[in-house]
Amino acid sequence: MADSSVSLKGSVAAAAAGTIDIERCRDDFPVLRREVHGKPLAFLDNAASSQMPEPVIRAYTEYHSRYHANVHRGVHLLSQEATAAMEGARETLRELINARSSKEVIFTSGATDAINLVMQSWGRANVGEGDEILISTMEHHSNIVPWRMLCDEKGAKLMVIPVSEDGVLDMEAFASMLNDRTRLVGIVHVSNTLGTVNPVKEITRLSHERGIPVLVDGAQAVSHMKVDVQAIGCDFFVTSGHKMFGPTGIGILYGKQELLEEMPPWRGGGDMILSVSFDEVLYNELPYKFEAGTPNISGAIGMGKAAEYIMSVGYDAIHAKEQDLLQYATEQLQTIEGLKIIGRAPEKSSVVSFVIEGIHPHDIGTILDLEGVAVRTGHHCTQPLMDRLGIVATTRASMAMYNRREEIDQLVAGLRKTIEMFR
């Protein structure tokens, strides 16, 4: 039988409670041994996609090399092994976010797909003319566009919670905006541009006092902090594998079971049905009702292994390491003349966005690449936030548990060289 649960033994980066063995951790990530343009790679673009450790890569490729078969349908051994591995990954992800049941964990192609599922299924059934959907100024486009589309279709209104100059959500304004017409609150847990950590538990509590369901976009949260959907109390939670050391093209939607059971399917096809005739379709039970067609099996297995890797390291250790990097990066960047950090929330994840007077972020990113430093430049799919802050784009350095202070030094040196070139 194929080993559908590749062991993490020998690859766990936890050194002791609350700490990370950084060199052992980095050894788990093959790409970090690369050179770029003759320079050691300093990968500081983790908010776009984090890298995959060896256990995830092995689990992902083992499926294709040892037991590649379709799931849920076959009686032969390979199909049974594939099904066991995929459903095992679902259970691991349930554990990661502390959902009550694996029935509440729906595999999707990513956080964007998961939000669209909620919009197409729950939204179309529950939002009508004159209703309101409440989101924030700092949302990613994936938590703006689907709701804008629904509002345009239904004649509803998209309401926006303001954000301060420091990138802090205006909670007083939020509370005042909740009303009898509000049908849903959609809020990002951690801003991909600012690093702001939003008080999602309090947002959910205030919303639920008025009977309003809450969707939390957790794409930037799961790799950095412990997420407990039961403690938060949210009705929906979404995240993507490639943001949490897993593959691209895979993600999950968490939904409270009672809500998911009431929601109609969005996509139709194989595996989401119990029986089909030309006169009637009987839909499958959760979670399969929302998983039409052959799923991304290897992606699901890889995402489950990524969740297992995160839990093996431990959130206390991850948080301590990344907060040290955030503090060090903030201190070092502030020594650069003409550089302004965008986003000064008191509670932040390991993201630092900045602008440098007189130099376009794209030029900064291009020169940094030649120095071996990978950062993200642009509006980061948050154009309304850029408009609010009066800027067009930023350079964003986003750090993960495997980054070192030396890579921050490499970033700073590259920025100083960039400034010299533009003098």
Describe the structure in your own words.
With 423 residues, this protein is of the alpha/beta class. It has 2 domains: 39-48 and 314-422, Aspartate Aminotransferase, domain 1, CATH 3.90.1150.10; 77-311, Type I PLP-dependent aspartate aminotransferase-like (Major domain) (Aspartate Aminotransferase, domain 2). It has 14 helices and 19 strands. The protein has helices spanning 22-27, 54-66, 77-97, 111-126, 145-154, 171-177, 200-208, 229-232, 257-262, 297-313, 315-333, 361-370, 383-389, 405-422; strands spanning 14-16, 19-20, 35-36, 39-40, 42-43, 105-108, 132-136, 157-161, 182-188, 214-217, 236-240, 251-255, 273-276, 281-283, 339-342, 351-356, 373-374, 376-378, 394-398. The strands form 6 sheets. Strands 6-12-11-10-9-7-8 form a 7-stranded mixed β-sheet, with helices on both faces. β3 and β4 form a beta hairpin. α4 packs parallel to α5 (145-154), α11 packs parallel to α14 and α12 (361-370) crosses α14 (405-422). Mean pLDDT is 95; it is low at 1-7.
Question: Keywords for this structure?
Answer:
seven-stranded mixed beta sheet, Aspartate Aminotransferase, domain 2, alpha/beta, four-stranded antiparallel beta sheet, 423 residues, 2 domains, Aspartate Aminotransferase, domain 1, 14 helices, 39% helix, 19 strands, single chain, disordered N terminus
